Amino acid sequence: MEPGRLRRRILGDDNYTFLTFSQNIDHSDPQKGTFKQRYEALFDYTTDNKTAILFIGGESDTFRPRAFNDYMATLCKEFNAAFFMLEHRYFGESFPTDLSYPNIKYLTVDNAIDDLYNFKVKMVEQYKMTDSKWILVGGSYPGLLSAYTRAKYPKEFHASIASSGVVIASNNYEDFDRQIAISLGQSCASVAREIRRRTDELLETDPDWLLATFNMTGLEKENFPLVLGEIFSLGAQYGRRQQLCGPLEDTLITGADPVMAIAKYTREIFTPNYADDDIIGTYSNSRLSVTSTPNGPRAWLWMTCNELAYWQVNSGRLTLRSKKVTQDFFLNQCKTVFSDEMKTPDTDAWNQKWGDLLKKTSRIYYLTGSQDPWTPVCYTAEDSDKIGPNCYVHTIVGQEIGHCRDLSSPQPSDPTDLTRTREHVKAVIHRWLAED
Q: In this structure, are residues 362 and 391 in contact, taking their beta carbons and an 8 Å threshold?
């Protein structure tokens, strides 16, 4: 599951015409030609074009016009900044090639980083922004891009905000499951484990009934354990734990069947809010074909199969995920969808390469949330020996502080630490902008 799925439910406007520019298909070989990459440029909040915020588009099929939300507008006003947003290659309508294998090979993190660099160079020229200071902002996978791009091009990008930036790749991500259990709490997690045990049995004895009860008729039964893991995780990931845990914990009091409780939650809350009202289209193997629409699931699967992994495997005896969800489960999916040549990504080598670079890089603000299951692959205070000089790292504490919560529009009900952190980020950016 991609870390930023909910974004595609809050982005998009069919009545807006985006700008495009010519981007290299392959930055290591410009002779491969160019493609049209979409972007947005907004100058409502700047008077001198001396500062720019580049909000990084990620693994989403849609691209919203204007500032991402009120918080982005707040930052632009605060720093007298121009606002840019670049759509990620192979998502939305920015396609260098089709998604067939091996054409999809041009979808790499390095190419995405070089897209940002090349975009910045061209925008500076087009809008006459010589000597401007650029701040990268991204959340989740774009948070990774924010930090990595600052590390690779420190002279071009002055600072970076990496919100829930998943800078640590993992091909055996057991900690995701463990963090979900912590976020759910002991009672809720215990019910979830009972549901996992029961549904594993039902997959063997009566899979048709199980899939029908969850309104998943048509889903390959081998994919059900993966979907169940998503059902347990996405509410906590996006700060909506109570929607899931309320009904599950009620079964401990009423004696109601927890399988029926999670099935009702799936039909009424999970599918409409986290599966685009189409759980089969979101999780079935059919969504991963070359011609399937939207294209995002196939493109993101390639990124995980090829480089980043983030394979959310079961975590042993107390796992919330089925014992069937293993490294081999994910590798087999990669081989089925793309090629038998696919291999398990070498995430140790990946983390060594980028970790060494990040350790030398200044002016990055790493942010996470106390209930975000992606925190184990983000930098936190425990990773102080890995961050560079003049950097900050903070885990925001508060009720239902999930994935990328700090980038959401500020609300009067926001936890105190979230409000305080946003103010501290602004103060730090002001200080960084005063530096050469």
A: yes
